Every structure is written in C-alpha cells, then in structure tokens.
Amino acid sequence: MADAYLIIKLEADALDDERYRVRTWRQFGAPWQPEPSEELEGDIDAVQRHVADVLADAEGGWAAEAEIIRLEFLLPRELLSLPVDQWPTSVEEVPIRPLGMNYQVVVRSLDRMQAKKWHREWRQRWAVFAGPRWEAPRSAGPASWGVDPAPAAELVTPSHPPSLAELRRLDVALAAHHQPLLVLERPLVHPAGDRPDEISVGLRAGVPLMLWQRDERLTEDFESVLGDLLSPDRDLRESARMLRMEAAGADDPERHVGSHITLLWDDPHRLVEPAGSLSAPR
C-alpha cells in the first residue's frame, strides 16, 4: 500500500503580514510527480480552514487507500516555527484534533528549495542520512549530531540569541562532521528577520533534518524526551507524532512539550519548486 503526501506552501503577503498565500501539491505513491492546486489567499483562519478542507478531500478521495498521509509544510524561514502541527484537523468538530496527533507533520525550507547554490551540500548530507551507516544518537543532550558526533561543547549555542562567533563555530562544526541532523539547544519561537541564527546556518550547510521546540518554559522537558525522539527503532517523524499525541491527551496540552515540537524533514530529491524531481520519496 502506497503512502500519500500533502505539501502545503505558505507565504506571508508582501504588503499585508496578516494575509497569506497558500498552495498545495498532492502525491500518491511513486514516481514523484506531485499535482499542484490553485493558489489561495486569506488570513490565518482562512488558511487553516483551507488546509482542513484539502485534508478532508484527501481522506475521502484521492488518498483514501493510503497507508500513511504525510503533511509537509513548505515555509520561508520566518514561518518555520509556525505551530502548524497544532492546527485543527477540522475547524468544525469538537474536541479539536491537532494535525500532529493523527498525521506525521513536518516543515520544509522554501528558501533552500529556491536557492540552487545550496543544493549540492543538501544532497550530500541527505545521502549520509539515507545511507546504511547513519543512526541518530540516543542522547538526551541538545547538540548537533552526525555519523561521528563532535563534542557537544563545540556544537551547542548557549546564548540567546547566539552571537556571530557562536554561529561561526557551529558552521565550522557542521562542515567538519557532515551530520544530517541538527538538534537546537534553545527554543526557537520566531526566527528574527534577516538576522542569522542556527536555522539559517543549518540550511546553508545543507542539513536536511532539524529538531527544536518552541516554548522557553519547556527546555528541560525537551531534553528529557530527546532519547525517545531519536530512537533508532522508529522513524523520527513517527516519534514526533507519538509525542504530539501524548500531548493532546494531557490534562494541559499547552504545558506539554509535545505541543511545541518542530521537525524539519527536507528531502532534496522531492522538489515542488521550481521543478519536481522524479525520485521515490523516503
């Protein structure tokens, strides 16, 4: 049974930052030939309703026989911490079921997809991840990791926001160790305009997998669940979904770290802009 993918591109309007442009692509099985939709414009509530409608169409139509429906939000850097995994599956049904409870929800980088000069390193790191030797470390410490993890002290960025010197050290560490996964030490709530941060360094370096949390209150909770999230026994996307499901069932979901997890999972062989690749998805 084949998997289905729903790719959702979201951009803020250039003249009104409370309005957005959204376009979707749908994909069932292989080869990778995603079918685009027309673009829609509206405020964030309209976008959420549109995503719920598109998902309902998938469940009742073109993806009804899929084993898994994966949701990939293609976002510019300033929107990468948007809590899309907490958007409602339906805007009408009660209780609200967040998207991340039932679906593997990830974000992808629109900026990198459009910047071909970054694609070579991006493909190389993905090849490391897809190869037989790579395994995520089962560590509870926040750091950046790869086949041969560097000492955490070289890779974490302790200040808030990180200094240029710290970002430079992170850039050097990424170049030296070729790791495909970057786990951020500090919460990332709203990427700050054009100012560089760990995300921008990781994107430029070609890192295809990044994991962070969005709530400054929950740093210790995030550290405590990293071991389970990075378990080699389960796909990282599924581990994130399970944690989000646990959060949805908590007495106070907003106080649970699973309601604030962002996973960037960015396969360079599955492009929708400017042109799609015809490889099979992973």
Structural account:
The structure is a single chain. This protein has 282 residues and is of the alpha/beta class. The chain has one domain (1-134, 208-282). 31% of the residues lie in helices and 18% in strands. It contains nine helices and ten strands. The chain has helices at 44-60, 99-102, 110-114, 119-130, 152-155, 164-177, 198-204, 219-229, 236-248, and strands spanning 4-12, 20-28, 35-36, 40-42, 69-75, 104-109, 144-145, 181-183, 209-213, 261-265. The strands form two sheets. Strands 1, 2, 3, 4, 5 and 6 form a six-stranded mixed beta sheet that branches. A four-stranded mixed beta sheet has the order 7-8-9-10, covered by helices on one side. The chain is globular and about 50 Å long. The protein starts with a strand and ends in a 17-residue tail after the last strand.
Topology:
Elements: E1 4-12, E2 20-28, E3 35-36, E4 40-42, H1 44-60, E5 69-75, H2 99-102, E6 104-109, H3 110-114, H4 119-130, E7 144-145, H5 152-155, H6 164-177, E8 181-183, H7 198-204, E9 209-213, H8 219-229, H9 236-248, E10 261-265
Parallel strand pairs: 1-5, 5-6, 8-9
Antiparallel strand pairs: 1-2, 2-3, 2-4, 7-8, 9-10
